[in-house]
Amino acid sequence: MRQRVAIVTDSTASIPLDVADQLGISVVQLELKVGEEQNDERRVPHAQLAQAMAAGTPVATAEPPPPAFYWNYSDAVASGAEAIISVHISEGLSRTCESARIAAAEIGIPVYVVDSRLVGLSLGYSVIAAAEAAAGGATPQGVMGVLDRRLRSTMQLLYVDTLEYLQRGGRIGRAQAWLGQTLSIKPVLALKEGIIDQHAKGIGIDRALKKAVTTAVERAGNAPVDIGVEHFEFADRANQVLDGLRSKLPQIRRATVAETSAILGAHAGPGALGVTVSPV
């Protein structure tokens, strides 16, 4: 059966390649410049990026240009889609949606560009839910309904070892007020209303991550949830956090540990870790 609705997202959604292929999700790459070399973010190894950041090499990120969206949308039209739902990183963090809208204006079928107000696996799980609905034959309105419910119910927390990199990139949002705290106070941040906001403070890594787990468990309650932990050069801690969530949550449908996108790593810095709870 021909799929009526095509789903497009961007690389910050951290969707595994096999899942994107299976569900027919088109992923547009954000761009990362390290020193003088610019590439799609998927081409930049995390270890190389972390080393460059530690050495003080200039790192910059950029939204995909409108033509990148145009060709993805055109492929969807050629495949017989009747509508396209294009779901992206929060506009409070990136101009990706702006590029998508420019391209959408040139396409001959309806294109719904959605500011997820999220990023990372929080965006990814919502996109996966939309793609599953589309694969099941849902109308554009039906897919949008599924997507909206997931976006509104999903929570994302972010632990960073330092606020330095978020400050450099101008993505620190309302957490700006925390700057100047002693280095022993590790922040747990949250994405609220599409921007990074303060959530809690922990004295040291262990307390900060324990607070993130406790908050995630409280948010999930007894409902079925998808959970995810993504990290930038922090794999051991990411697995510990996932184990903590597994031991406390009664109904887990999906559980994922993943490297975060290089774009997010460039803004959050080495040692960053994100926690997603997405009610099913």
Provide the structure class.
Answer: alpha/beta
Q: How would you describe the shape?
A: globular
Please work out how many helical segments DSSP would assign: 10
- Distance from first to last alpha carbon: 25 Å
Q: What oligomeric state do the depicted chains represent?
A: single chain
How many E strands? 13
Helical content stands at 25-40%
Q: What is Rg?
A: 18 Å
Average pLDDT? 90
Question: Per DSSP, what share of the residues sits in E-state strands of 2 or more residues?
Answer: 25-35%
What does this structure look like?
It is a single chain. This protein has 280 residues and is an alpha/beta fold. Helices cover 39% and strands 28% of the residues. It contains ten helices and 13 strands. It has helices at residues 17-23, 46-54, 66-78, 96-104, 121-135, 140-153, 164-169, 205-220, 235-248, 262-268; strands at residues 5-10, 26-28, 31-34, 37-40, 59-62, 83-88, 111-115, 155-159, 185-192, 195-203, 225-232, 252-259, 272-279. The strands form three sheets. It has a six-stranded mixed beta sheet, sandwiched between helices. A hairpin with a 2-residue loop joins strand 9 and strand 10 (195-203). Helix 3 crosses helix 4, helix 5 runs antiparallel to helix 6 and helix 8 runs parallel beside helix 9.
